[in-house]
Amino acid sequence: MEHGCLARMQMTGMRQLAVPGCLMLITVLALAEVKQRPWTYRASVFAHRPLLPSETFPVSRTIAVKNMMKNVVIYRQQAQHAAKQGAQIIVYPEDGLYGYLFNRVTIKPYLEPIPDPWQVLPWVPCTDPGRVQPSDIMVQLSCIARENKIYLVANMGDIKPCNTTDDVSGIPCPPDGHFQYNTDVVFDPTGRLIARYHKHNLCEEHQFDKPEVEVVTFETPFGRFGLFTCFDILFHDPAILLVENGITNIAFPTFWTEEYPLLNAIGIHSPGHVGTV
Hints:
The protein has seven helices and eleven strands. The chain has helices spanning about 5-10, 15, 60-85, 105, 135-150, 240-245, 265-275, and strands at about 30-35, 40-45, 90, 150-160, 165-170, 170, 180-185, 195-200, 215-220, 225, 250. Helix 3 (about 60-85) packs parallel to helix 5 (about 135-150). The longest helix is centred in the N-terminal third of the chain and has 24 residues, at about 60-85. It starts with 6 loop residues before the first helix and ends with a helix.
């Protein structure tokens, strides 16, 4: 099944398909009232067609940031639109900042070192951009959340240096001396980084490393959220582990494809919602 998950993208042409969605609450660009006693809140989800880099070869960090900023501009516009309609949380799709046409080498300049918010002092990248470098995209996302006073969930890439003679929880350090992770980040309405999740169940994503299973949650005034990404929904971990942790909602950035008969979105996401929330 893992090898089939991208088959339709390959047959259709990846640049032509580009149909990422976002969250288990709703799909496409929309607002929804979610009622879960004793909370009522408004959620916004943006199904984004990312502006893809034209380069298929390694680029500088400067060019990578320039490419991502084209999508950040759209993210900011949609957050403003959602906030004006009273949304309290917005979720952007997997791969929405840079697309998916990468290998391990070409994705590297698009990555940023993302700290674990549970292991560092509270950090608002928007007001303290120098603490972690480079952090161009985290600063932008933090400012979008802060400007619009909204919880923001986005997907980006994390890079972690490692010693090739060591391993992390039994996972050997890659030969190039760093781990690369498909990562979800969450910012609160002040722009503070409050959650980071590394996608565990990869789907032919050879540009990224597979981490150990993480159970990541974040608290809001309207409930406790769990995080996982796209292909994770087909597996026991981390979804069921999150349920056992007492979550009331799931933020689910995804780049899904309609691959019949077994991987159509409604057929997977609806029972996934019933089974987890």
